[in-house]
From TrEMBL:
The organism's taxonomic lineage, starting at the top: Eukaryota, Viridiplantae, Streptophyta, Embryophyta, Tracheophyta
Keyword Transport included in the entry's annotation: yes
The species this protein was found in: Camelina sativa (False flax)
Membrane spanning stretches: none
Role description: Component of the ubiquinol-cytochrome c oxidoreductase, a multisubunit transmembrane complex that is part of the mitochondrial electron transport chain which drives oxidative phosphorylation.
Family stated for the protein in its record: Belongs to the UQCRB/QCR7 family.
Signal peptide: none
Record's keyword annotation contains Mitochondrion: yes
Main localization, broad class: mitochondrion
Pfam family for this entry, one: UCR_14kD
Localization annotation: Mitochondrion inner membrane
Membrane topology: Peripheral membrane protein
InterPro entries attached to this UniProt entry: QCR7 (IPR003197), QCR7_sf (IPR036544)
SUPFAM superfamilies registered for this protein in UniProt: 14 kDa protein of cytochrome bc1 complex (Ubiquinol-cytochrome c reductase)
The name this protein goes by in its record: Cytochrome b-c1 complex subunit 7
Amino acid sequence: MSSFLKAFIDPKKNFLARMHMKAISTRLRRYGLRYDDLYDQYYSMDIKEAMNRLPREVVDARNQRLKRAMDLSVKHEYLPKDLQAMQTPFRGYLQDMLALVERESKEREALGALPLYQRTLP
């Protein structure tokens, strides 16, 4: 990635990136979600594999946050302000594991090995 692009998407250096990050943070706090909760395990097999490798407590907490967000959305409500203030929308839990899985699959591909998992239609 070029240095211009890095500077362009860095919230510390770009006002628009900072505004975008603040808007996303506000929307995630309203429902009590984290940014990593938005990854869909049916979109990519790498995401599904990373989710399978996470500890059970982390996956259960993610599912609970998603259920709460869906419930609030259906009711057209938001979390109370005091709970919104406690939310940490950019505390990641999936990025490190996802990067590891993607590195492993690239390494397997470079070595000519068969994929660790095969994509199947549901």
